[in-house]
């Protein structure tokens, strides 16, 4: 996967505005909340901060409850480093935690503040309780203005490099049409470029992106007729649930 092959390992390899880069390189670093659109590099930035140091990465959706998460944090944070360096705990997709779970994390932040820093990643900063939010520096990865322009220049150079390594070409017009459609989700852009590469294309186009308009349309009246005959159950009206598959209550 290109997303893994070209995933930056160090902060210097990332495409970030200078202000953000300078902040994340500062030592000793603070507790952070990285939030923003999926695919913008939040987790990559957290891992890059930890590069060469001692860190623990936890994905709450893959763990067996907050007790297991706290147990891992306590075990990791309680171990002393030979050089007394600060350790890093990365809580990826903290949105998956309940409010009570976050209160437990607040306690861990306070308990190990002398030896450990925490970086939380989230798609929605509003999902973070105030007790945790007040203990972190918020950093939005959806950049705008001059910082967006700075990032676009970096992505242009990176994209040209990646395509060159894979014997592909792209025009400036096509590149910026793709950027306008899909940024800040560069992960999606990489997947899109890899898909075209896998199809044997050597020149990137904008014609192969699937559209919602390409989805199959269903004849709901015909579906209602088939179900009525199969189960001998009279249906009210001619449509299922008053229309398409997304009408009515969602499960």
Keywords:
single chain; 43% helix; 10 helices; alpha/beta; Rossmann fold
What does this structure look like?
It is elongated and about 55 Å long. Mean pLDDT is 82; it is low at 210-220 and 226-251. The protein has 2 domains: 2-140, 3-Layer(aba) Sandwich (Rossmann fold), CATH 3.40.50; 145-198. It is 43% helix and 10% strand. The protein is α/β, with parallel strands linked by helices. The chain has a 5-stranded parallel beta sheet with strand order 2-3-4-1-5, with helices on both faces. It starts with a helix and ends in a 20-residue tail after the last helix.
Largest sheet: 5 strands, parallel
Tally of separate domains: 2
Sheet with the most strands: spatial strand order? 2-3-4-1-5
Low-confidence stretches: 210-220, 226-251
CATH class category label of the largest domain: Alpha Beta
Note the total helix count: 10
What percent strand? 5-15%
Broad shape: elongated
Q: What's the name of the CATH homologous superfamily of the largest domain?
A: P-loop containing nucleotide triphosphate hydrolases
Mean pLDDT: 82
Helix content estimate: 40-55%
Compressed to H and E, one letter per element, the order equals HHEHEHEHEHEHHHH
- Count all strands and give the number: 5
CATH overall fold name of the largest domain: Rossmann fold
CATH architectural designation of the largest domain: 3-Layer(aba) Sandwich
Q: What value does the Rg take, in angstroms?
A: 24 Å
- Termini separation comes to 33 Å
* Main structural class: alpha/beta
């Amino acid at each position: 996967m290109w997303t893994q092959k070209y995933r930056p390992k160090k902060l210097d390899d990332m495409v970030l505005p200078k202000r953000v880069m300078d902040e994340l390189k500062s030592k000793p670093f603070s507790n952070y909340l990285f939030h923003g659109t999926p695919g913008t590099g939040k987790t990559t930035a957290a891992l890059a901060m930890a590069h060469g140091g001692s860190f623990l990465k936890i994905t709450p959706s893959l763990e067996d409850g907050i007790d297991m998460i706290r147990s891992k944090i306590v075990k990791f944070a309680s171990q002393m480093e030979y050089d007394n360096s600060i350790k890093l705990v990365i809580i990826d997709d903290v949105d998956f935690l309940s409010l009570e779970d976050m209160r437990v994390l607040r306690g861990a932040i306070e308990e190990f503040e002398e030896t450990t820093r925490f970086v939380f990643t989230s798609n929605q900063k509003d999902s973070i309780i105030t007790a945790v939010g007040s203990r972190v520096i918020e950093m939005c990865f959806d950049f705008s203005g001059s910082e967006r322009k700075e990032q676009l220049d970096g992505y242009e150079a990176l994209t040209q490099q990646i395509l060159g390594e894979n014997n592909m070409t792209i025009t400036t017009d096509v590149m910026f049409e793709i950027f306008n459609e899909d940024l800040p989700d560069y992960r999606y852009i990489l997947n899109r470029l890899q898909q075209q590469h896998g199809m044997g294309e050597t020149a990137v186009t904008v014609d192969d992106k699937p559209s919602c308009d390409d989805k199959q349309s269903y004849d709901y009246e015909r579906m209602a007729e088939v179900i009525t005959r199969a189960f001998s159950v009279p249906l009210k009206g001619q449509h299922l649930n008053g229309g398409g598959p997304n009408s009515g209550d969602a499960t």
